[in-house]
Amino acid sequence: MTVFKNQVAVVTGASSGIGKAIALGIAAQGAKLCLLGRKLDQLLAIAKIAEETSPQVVCYQLDLNVDEDIEKLKTRLEVDFGQVDLLIHSAGVITLGELKTASVKDFDLQYRTNVRAPYVLTQALLPMLISSQGQIVFINSSAGLTAKAGVGQYAATKHALKAIADSLRDEVNSLGVRVLSVFPGRTASPMQAAICETEGKTYNPDRLLQPEDVAAVVIHTFSLPRTAEVTDVQVRPFVKS
Ligand SMILES: NC(=O)c1ccc[n+]([C@@H]2O[C@H](COP(=O)([O-])OP(=O)(O)OC[C@H]3O[C@@H](n4cnc5c(N)ncnc54)[C@H](OP(=O)(O)O)[C@@H]3O)[C@@H](O)[C@H]2O)c1
């Protein structure tokens, strides 16, 4: 399959869950891959699978909350690939807790990872994305549209992420760049397993959205003709009772 032949995809959160599924799905369609994350061992294991279908896969170990790491990445991408066509923001963190007790330190970490980091990375790579008339996806959350009890900090960061995506779309559509927000419900991943543990619920991955389902939404949307732009997609688990 060669839908993304000659295209370079940068994937955050590529070491796990939804980001990993998107990276492998895009590699299966012939894209060159830049895999981003802090856990190099996991990135290398994913790269090994991706190399079966992708012409070039490079792992970049970085902490998205460190601005110097993003600056270094930008320089390395210019040297290693010279172009960026697809930017996939999947990295994220969540901490649960009601406002009366939730820690501000947790809030700060979620803000830095879920809002500031995708903003800074997009800003760094935007010249290359404009030059390629590329595409950007922000993996948001159902919590980015509706905030329920106990998830206020995370929901606030995801609402902010939607605002960034919407403003950016308005700024770059005229330059040929498409911007997508995807709002998944509960998805089987290490993050969701940890959420269930905190909530005291059984983690039953078979009854959740699969990371590959979210990847399929992104790949299909990225593959649409240039006469169409999908701006927002909500996707949730579908389980027969
Ligand atoms: N799972 C769900 O139910 C669900 C539902 C809706 C939306 N989402 C969203 O989907 C996205 C992916 O979540 P997931 O379920 O795939 O979670 P996951 O399996 O926990 O993966 C999270 C990813 O984020 C990366 N990451 C976190 N902090 C980072 C940092 N400071 N620097 C670099 N990378 C960092 C992790 O990489 P390293 O640890 O290697 O750094 C990891 O690859 C998130 O934005 C999440 O909010 C998830």
What does this structure look like?
This protein is of the alpha/beta class and 241 residues long. It has one domain (8-234): NAD(P)-binding Rossmann-like Domain (Rossmann fold, 3-Layer(aba) Sandwich), CATH 3.40.50. Helices cover 44% and strands 15% of the residues. The chain is built from 7 helices and 7 strands; from the N terminus they run βαβαβαβαβαβααβ. It has helices at 17-27, 40-50, 67-80, 104-131, 152-172, 190-199, 211-222; strands spanning 8-11, 32-37, 57-61, 86-89, 135-139, 178-184, 232-235. The protein has a 7-stranded parallel beta sheet, sandwiched between helices. Strand 5, helix 5 (152-172) and strand 6 (178-184) form a beta-alpha-beta unit. Helix 3 runs parallel beside helix 4. The longest helix has 28 residues, at 104-131. It starts with 7 loop residues before the first strand and ends in a 6-residue tail after the last strand. The site of NADP nicotinamide-adenine-dinucleotide phosphate has 28 residues, from helix 1 and helix 6. Residues 13, 15-19, 37-39, 42, 63-65, 90-94, 113, 139, 141, 184, 186-187, 189-192 line the site of NADP nicotinamide-adenine-dinucleotide phosphate.
